[in-house]
């Protein structure tokens, strides 16, 4: 591997570590010419199978771009989006599969997006689940309400 500082074609590995989640290997390298150090990360490629039947490598930026559209005008900043992209990737990688369906990616987005912002969640769900009328929205809202209520009841039980 070339040194990114001086382009020397020969660098040596001084430390190798597996990331905490076990899905990446980090190598600390040193250039014998300029003595500077840098890190490389090795991960397996996660493929996303699209509805068309084509597969493409998972792309966190693509996930973020899709979610960003649903978040317009909502109090969500770039850091929230970055974190969500990371959560989605970790969720998918934790399944230990080399390939997932694009549907799975959509589902993996819905959960953290809902915790972030319910309006953005509904917008995203309406596209992803192909809502065609008001009843679809109503149903999704009812589900959100019912689940919020049971979550509140749960915390009330825990507090008493
Ligand atoms: Zn160098």
Structural features, described:
- The protein is α+β, with helices and mostly antiparallel strands and 160 residues long.
- The protein has two domains: 12-43; 47-131, no CATH class.
- It has five helices and six strands.
- It has helices at 60-70, 78-93, 102-116, 118-128, 134-159, and strands at residues 12-18, 24-30, 37-43, 47-49, 55-57, 99-101.
- It has a three-stranded antiparallel sheet with strand order 1-2-3, with no helix packed on it.
- β4 and β5 form a beta hairpin.
- α2 (78-93) packs across α3 (102-116) and α3 packs antiparallel against α4.
- It starts with 11 loop residues before the first strand and ends with a helix.
- It binds zinc ion (ZN).
- Zinc ion binds at residues 3, 5-6, 8, 31, 33-34, 36.
- This is Transcriptional repressor NrdR.
- A zinc finger (unnamed) spans 3-34.
- One of its GO terms (molecular function) is DNA binding.
- Keywords: ATP-binding, DNA-binding, Metal-binding, Nucleotide-binding, Repressor, Transcription, Transcription regulation, Zinc, Zinc-finger.
- Negatively regulates transcription of bacterial ribonucleotide reductase nrd genes and operons by binding to NrdR-boxes.
Radius of gyration: 21 Å
Mean pLDDT level? 91
The unique ligands bound to this protein are: zinc ion
Molecular shape: elongated
Instruction: Count the beta strands.
Output: 6
Protein name: Transcriptional repressor NrdR
Keywords: ATP-binding, DNA-binding, Metal-binding, Nucleotide-binding, Repressor, Transcription, Transcription regulation, Zinc, Zinc-finger
Cofactor: Zn(2+)
Function: Negatively regulates transcription of bacterial ribonucleotide reductase nrd genes and operons by binding to NrdR-boxes.
């Amino acid at each position: 591997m070339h040194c990114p500082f001086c382009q020397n074609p020969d660098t040596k590995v001084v430390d190798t570590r597996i990331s905490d989640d076990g899905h990446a290997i980090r190598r600390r390298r040193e250039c014998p010419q300029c003595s500077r150090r840098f890190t490389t990360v090795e991960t397996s490629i996660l493929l996303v199978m699209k509805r068309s039947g084509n597969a493409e490598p998972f792309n966190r930026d693509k996930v973020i771009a899709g979610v960003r559209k649903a978040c317009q005008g909502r109090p969500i900043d770039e850091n929230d989006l970055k974190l969500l992209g990371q959560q989605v990737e970790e969720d998918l990688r934790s399944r230990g599969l080399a390939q997932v369906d694009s549907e799975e990616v959509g589902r993996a987005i819905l959960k953290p997006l809902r915790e972030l912002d319910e309006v953005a969640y509904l917008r995203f769900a309406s596209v992803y689940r192909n809502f065609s009328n008001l009843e679809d929205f109503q149903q999704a809202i009812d589900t959100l309400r019912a689940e919020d209520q049971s979550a509140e009841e749960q915390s009330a039980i825990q507090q008493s």
